[in-house]
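Q: I have two molecules that I believe assemble together. Could you output structure tokens for the complex as a whole instead of separate predictions?
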Amino acid sequence: MIPLARRNLLAEKAKFLTTAFGTGVSILMMLAILGIYFGAINAAKAIPQNSGAKYWVVQTGSADMYHTFSILPAGMQEKLEQIDGVEKAAPLINHATRIKVGDDLITSAVIGYEINSGLGAPWDIVSGQNIKNYGEIVVDRSMAIKNNIEINDIVEVGNKTFKVVGFSGDTNTFVFQYVFIPLKDALEAFETSHTVNYYLLKTSGNVDKDTLDKKVASLVKNAMVKESAEISDANVAVIKTSFLPIIAFLIIIGLFAGMTVIGVTVYTTTSERAREFGVLKAIGIKNTRLFRIVLQQAFVISIVGFFAGVLLYFLVQFLAYKWMPELTFALDIKYYVYILLLTLLMSVLASIVSIRKVLSIDPALVFKA
Amino acid sequence: MNSLVEVKNISKTFGSGHTAVKAVDNVSFSVKDGEIALIMGPSGSGKTTLLTIIGTLLSPDSGSVFINGLEVTALSKRKLPDVRLKKIGFIFQSFNLLSSLNVLENVAIVLELMGTRSRKAKQQAQKLLEELGLGNRLKYNVANLSGGEKQRVSIARALVTNPAVVLADEPTANLDSKSGHKVMELLRNIAKQEGKGVIIVTHDMRLKDIADKTFWIEDGKLREHSPLQ
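A: Yes, here they are, computed for all two components at once.
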């Protein structure tokens, strides 16, 4: 079959490439927004999922690590370890503060964890090493890049100084970044020796959550037990309720922008070739075949635009990794498929006006000189 | 000889009331296989309207048109594209080639619309183009052809489906003398060797040399010229 649709588009290569690029930018916009969104979702899950604990003891009413606060009495880990099935209990501090790097103050979330237990420790050291001694700190990789922090640099948290021993990956929430210090240092730095935020419980065998919850409640006043997955889900819910409407709005804008680019191009390509479509109608082409040509034109633009958008997305990720490290992207393959399907749907919708145009072309115009 | 085109009492009026213009007024004539009919007349006389009606691109207000025995004016609009594709070949004054396709594809596409497989369509189109002296232009972009070559591609496109009738609108108008004569020769061959009915609408008096019948149309009324006129 002679690919008339493709030939019509490629007859003006510069115009076609401009259109494909325009569509690609719309696709990039959608992919980047989704990528950042899922990057933030992943980051929200990261701390609870990688804490090494199955259960968290939190203050009653506390749900997530962002919007709800949890304050528990310090020094309860030995009592918690006496509960049947609890192998290890370790306190955790999660404290949003500003740390001093040279003359700069950088907002970050400080995780103070028990270095001997390992619960709550950074799980992905991308450079340097994990904390082995008091007075050491592990800093999020993107925060380090953005603020020129090097291994062995000295930073200040609260009233204490720390030596940077490593950089962690997967600890950037887009809005802020995590740093990790030993629990003892955190208690001193924040002068909160009587309270911690959470206890992380590592269990062995099958421990019933309700039973555990009752036993914990009997030991620690105003405390309850949550599974790590619950904390993770609650964190995600915060991201969803705050980001999702914005994301949806921007994606709709991206869709409209893409649809407009495709629609205008298909329409102008159709209009410019109205006489040729008239010739085809005069010769005896059926309307269904004409629709197919118009749709194919839109599909070609969409598909080329989609792949241009994906390439641009990878390029943006690469550039962001270097120059905007706090931006993290995460996009499952299925979302590429969804965006491709959306793009094809866009091209169908954008073709409607052009199809109406083709229908209205009078084939008798071919007799006009 | 069989009547390939029969036009019976065709009338067509554009507009209404005081602004009504009778473009075709009770026109009847027929064209048999192997015949060339020439329709001449001043601008605005109704000759293109008549050709458009015969080509099933415009419905008459009254009267009938038969193409190869089929009353096309009685058919639904949905069936007309198929009639045009299979029974009628069009040759236009301004060639109307598809600018994004090359010479071979411009001809082969018509066969593909009829359902012929792409490879076979291209083989058939190539054979016809070679017969018309365009064998060395197959891959050319149509924009790079001379006027005479473009019209020969247009003729190949009209003939490739082996239609019963060929309708030509001012086929020599945009051509130089030499190319015009070449096209005239081709039109004569279409009728005499291929046995098709050819209807030509033109101002070009040279075409009278190849016509079997010449009609004069003025104010929508058609009358036949005798060969001596």
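A: One point stands out. Chain A touches chain B through 24 residues (CB under 8 Å).
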